[in-house]
Specification:
GO terms for molecular function: kinase activity; RNA binding. The chain is an alpha+beta fold. Helices cover 65% and strands 14% of the residues. A five-stranded antiparallel sheet has the order 2-1-5-4-3, sandwiched between helices. The N terminus is likely disordered.
Length: 246
């Protein structure tokens, strides 16, 4: 009696996805540049999903798609060809919010231009997943394979798992950027307040006037010159300090 073949376990494949995501998380801890992060999203897609030879990320700003990152120039050109005609498998993933999985042979019926260019570039299959982090970042992760028989359902599921985690990483990144911008605005506001208070104090001492009158003089000059109050205060403080030093 022959024993049945052991079932193929998904554990090694999931380990690859986990490893790719751990690498992305490490990048996020070290970098705050979105383009660098997207570059690593593409690079790690080749580890997370078997059969991926090249990868790219399409981002849509307004209604205009563009390739934000790619592992090679050729896939960037293949993406751009789809943008020019307004149709193709990567745009299909963006529009429908669903995984697109096709061989180049199958794609020839619906997207002949893309299929011809992909075949000429040496690709035989395509897989894309929608990438939606929030209202600002949306698009697709595009994967190109060399094999003619296309990606299997297993690869599609792995890509879906990978992109879901990438979306979560993007949300963390976006919150970090917003927090950093808020901190920068607060720092600027505190700096502005400090120099304005310094200018007020100098005016009060020089002209022997109250705080409200000193502030009113600064505001009046700011409006007259059509410049920010902080700049008026900085110039005044510099003049006073310079005259005192002289």
């Amino acid at each position: 009696m022959e024993l049945p073949e052991p079932a193929v376990t998904a554990a090694p494949l999931l380990d690859e996805v986990t490893g790719a995501l751990e690498a992305l998380t490490a990048v996020l801890r070290q970098e705050d540049d979105l383009l660098i992060l997207l570059r690593h999203v593409c690079l790690q897609a080749r580890h997370a999903v078997p059969g991926v030879a090249e990868a790219s990320v399409t981002l849509v700003i307004g209604d205009t798609p563009h390739t934000a990152s790619a592992t090679s120039a050729i896939v960037g050109e293949l993406d751009a060809g789809q943008y020019r005609i307004g149709d193709g498998p990567c745009l299909e993933a963006v529009r429908t919010g669903k995984i697109v999985r096709t061989s180049v042979t199958e794609a020839a019926e619906r997207w002949p231009s893309f299929a011809g260019q992909a075949r000429e570039a040496g690709f035989g299959s395509f897989l894309a997943a929608p990438l939606v982090a929030d209202e600002e970042y949306s698009g697709a992760l595009n994967c190109y394979g060399r094999e003619d028989d296309g990606f299997a359902e297993t690869e599609a599921q792995l890509l879906e798992l990978y992109t879901a985690a990438v979306e979560a990483i993007f949300r963390v990144y976006h919150r970090y950027v917003r927090a950093r911008e808020t901190a920068e605005h607060l720092r600027t506001a505190l700096t502005s307040r400090a120099v304005i208070d310094q200018a007020k104090g100098m005016l009060m001492a020089i002209r022997r006037i109250g705080a409200d009158d000193a502030f009113a003089l600064l505001v009046e000059q700011s409006q007259r010159e059509n410049v920010k109050l902080r700049e008026v205060a900085e110039r005044f403080v510099e003049r006073v300090v310079s005259s005192g030093a002289g």
